[in-house]
Amino acid sequence: MHSTVTATVTAFSFLLAICGIFFYFLGIPSIVEKDITAFRRLDNDAGGFSSWKEALIPLQFNVYFFNVTNPDEVMQGKNPVLKEIGPYVYDEFKSKMEYTFDGDTVTYMLQEKLYFNEKLSGCRQEDDIITILNVALMGTAATIKKTFPMGITYFNQAIPHLFLGKNTLFKGSTVREILFDGVTIYCNSTAMAATTVCKAMVNYLPPQIRKLENSSNFAFSLFYNKNKTATGPFKEIRGIKNISNVGTTIEYKGKLHLEVWQENSTCDLVRGYDLSALPPFVNPQMNLQLFVPDICSALHGEFTGEGKISDIRVFRFTGDT
Ligand SMILES: *[C@@H]1O[C@H](CO)[C@@H](O)[C@H](O)[C@H]1NC(C)=O
Ligand SMILES: *[C@@H]1O[C@H](CO)[C@@H](O)[C@H](O)[C@H]1NC(C)=O
Ligand SMILES: *[C@@H]1O[C@H](CO)[C@@H](O)[C@H](O)[C@H]1NC(C)=O
Ligand SMILES: *[C@@H]1O[C@H](CO)[C@@H](O)[C@H](O)[C@H]1NC(C)=O
Ligand SMILES: *[C@@H]1O[C@H](CO)[C@@H](O)[C@H](O)[C@H]1NC(C)=O
Ligand SMILES: *[C@@H]1O[C@H](CO)[C@@H](O)[C@H](O)[C@H]1NC(C)=O
User: Fold this and answer.
1) Dihedral angle computed from the Cα positions of residues 115, 120, 123 and 128, in that order, rounded to the nearest 10 degrees
2) Cis upstream peptide for 280 (omega within 30°)
3) C-beta atoms surrounding 101 within 10 Å
4) Counting atoms of ligand 6 from 1, which one is nearest the CA of 262?
5) pLDDT at position 18, please?
6) C-alpha span between 201 and 141 (Å, rounded)
7) Its domain of life (predicted)?
8) What pLDDT sits at residue 182?
């Protein structure tokens, strides 16, 4: 898990992509407090349980890229000229599977499904070509460095075989390739350097690299796996003892710590509400933290004002890391 996360973080930093997650939710007057409490706790016969299992309203997953507009000049030593492009908007549906109750906690696996939202993406399409640092190259290098450090000496020689074309450091790929379909890593060459790197990779594939079917090649993408396989397990509080704690994540992958940030630091603690189980009776003073496994961290929500949605009074909280 450690190296998986490192690969994710590496991929993110090289991609220079920012995923913005904005959220807001409803504040409910506490007249029917008792009913709401019974409705919202995580239990088979609680009215709100089906929407915890299967979120009907998608979250918006916004992806931004920094397009390198002068890759050839950068290769000659000039500074890159970056242009932010986005958002590419995806609807993200979350569902919980294989849940089991244990006292006041529930353990489950999370399956996410992403669908491109053409309307909200405006003029941006999934086949737009973006020039960024070659994420597949960086991902492969990171994998080899982790699993077979000696292999890294072959890596430079292997690059022209693994990534066809002349400027292999910057690569134009479609948004869909970078995020889901994958940028191809060619393993059909018989050159020694290439076969060494390819063999080393087979033994340990991070979630971002997968072997392509009926082919010796691999593909690197950021979210193919997110859309395909469930993650977890997550353990969170059911809110039976105290409804204010419903949805608080207390363990991820069987651990209290993420093991990504500094050991024993607050950053490294698994903490924050599950997005689909925010507690009832939210108030502006509340310390609203959300657990976001995508970035191995908790996001803090800052109260930024009141508003109205369909005549219902709402509190708006805005994410700030
Ligand atoms: C990104 O920059 C490249 C030049 O490096 C350009 O060809 C491409 O059209 C740009 N992509 C978008 C979506 O603007
Ligand atoms: C995610 O997977 C579903 C099928 O499980 C598919 O219909 C959908 O197109 C995939 N999303 C993306 C963005 O590839
Ligand atoms: C590997 O496959 C690519 C794409 O199919 C092809 O262009 C290339 O020539 C192949 N390389 C070798 C050494 O066969
Ligand atoms: C791979 O090969 C199998 C058997 O020949 C075939 O059924 C399958 O459709 C192929 N998959 C792809 C992605 O081409
Ligand atoms: C319920 O939990 C909240 C938040 O952790 C805490 O402030 C409150 O005192 C608790 N209530 C009871 C009755 O323990
Ligand atoms: C973290 O906490 C554990 C258990 O309390 C302790 O054994 C370990 O030495 C701590 N690590 C650091 C770096 O403080």
Assistant:
1) -30
2) no
3) 14
4) 13
5) 32
6) 10
7) Eukaryota
8) 92
The whole-angstrom separation of Cα 187 and Cα 216 is: 6
Residue nearest to atom 4 of ligand 3 (CA): 186
Give the span between the Cα atoms of 314 and 317, in whole angstroms: 10
pTM of the model: 0.80
Query: How much distance in Å is there from the Cα of 214 to the middle of ligand 4?
Result: 6
CA of 6 to the centre of ligand 2 (A): 25
pLDDT given for residue 151 in this prediction: 77
At 64 the three-state DSSP class reads strand
CA–centroid distance, residue 244 to ligand 5 (Å): 6
Ligand 4 atom 5: the closest Cα is on which residue? Answer: 214
Which own/partner contact pairs does 238-241 have at CB distance under 8 Å and 24+ positions apart?
238/41, 238/42, 238/43, 238/101, 238/104, 238/105, 238/106, 239/37, 239/40, 239/41, 239/42, 239/104, 239/279, 240/41, 240/42, 240/43, 240/104, 241/104
Residue 46, CB-side half-sphere exposure with 13 Å CA sphere: 21
Ligand nearest to the CA of 180: 2
**What is the rounded CA–CA span in Å between residue 271 and residue 300?**
11
What residues flank ligand 5, with Cβ below 6 Å? 242, 244-245
Helix pair 152-162, 192-202: axis angle to 10 deg: 100
pLDDT in the model for residue 76: 87
* Low-confidence spans in the chain with pLDDT less than 50: 1-30
Q: Whose CA is nearest to atom 10 of ligand 6?
A: 264
Residue with tokens 């369909």: 310
